[in-house]
Amino acid sequence: SSDLTIFNVIASNLANKMPFKSLFKELGDANINSEQKLKYLMFSAYCFYFDGDITHTKEILSDLVNYSFDGDYNKWTWIEGAIMLQLYLDNFNNLELKDKVLATLDYGNDELKNKIKKKAFARRANGLLLHTDEKSSLVNNKEVDFLKLIPYFSELIFIRAFGNGEKFTEEELTINLTSLEQKVKSVISQYK
After folding, report:
1. Residues of 25-61 as b/e, b for ≥16 C-beta within 10 angstroms?
2. Which of 1, 48, 86, 173 is least enclosed by beta carbons within 10 angstroms?
């Protein structure tokens, strides 16, 4: 599908709707540059998912998860976020996508740099970078801070996909993801 079509769909289905409105105001114009566009699309995919619109979620994801890592981490942040949602939809069974994420650790031929990347990845995968204290402020009865909640939700998926269960067990992460999702959906349902 062309970019334009999906942007029109987002504009008419999410951008002007509560409780998504403030997120899209914050995200601004999607066409500024490719990095901004990827960010806009990734956030939209999660919003469609929470809104129960799996068709549009998958349409956006099928585009984003096909991007290849080119060394640009600013872009990759949003691609990786999309890959996490796809992994979540696939019940963590998509090895091809997991490998795609792991492949970024061997990108380029600077071994020292890659060693450092692998260490950082391991710390992150074990939940050491997750700000759990933020959790309470992400969603309340009336509104969702999507700008913070979506990266947090995505990070939980990341830990569930790549962690060793040291700090957070698989079960704990699944419960956290499910309860966050339910809270978000219950806010959304008030506006339907």
Report:
1. eebeebeeeeebbbbbbbbbbbbbbbbebeebbbbbb
2. 1
Take residue 74 and report the two structure tokens written for it: 């600013």
**Cα 169 to Cα 29: distance, rounded to the nearest angstrom:** 39
**What tens digit of pLDDT does each residue of 43-68 get?**
999 999 999 999 999 999 999 999 99
Helix 3-10 / helix 54-64 crossing angle, nearest 10 deg: 140
Q: Are 134 and 150 in contact (CB under 8 A)?
A: no
pLDDT above 90 as % of the chain: 69
| 3-class DSSP state of 139 | strand
CB contact at 8 A, 90 and 98: no
- Of 173, 184, 190, nearest to 146 by C-alpha is 184
Query: Is the pTM higher than 0.85?
Result: yes
Which of the 8 DSSP states describes residue 23? H
- What DSSP letter does each residue of 67-91 carry, written as one string? PPP-S-HHHHHHHHHHHHHHHHHTT
| Two tokens, residue 80 | 């990786």
Closest CA to 138 of 173, 184, 84, 178: 184
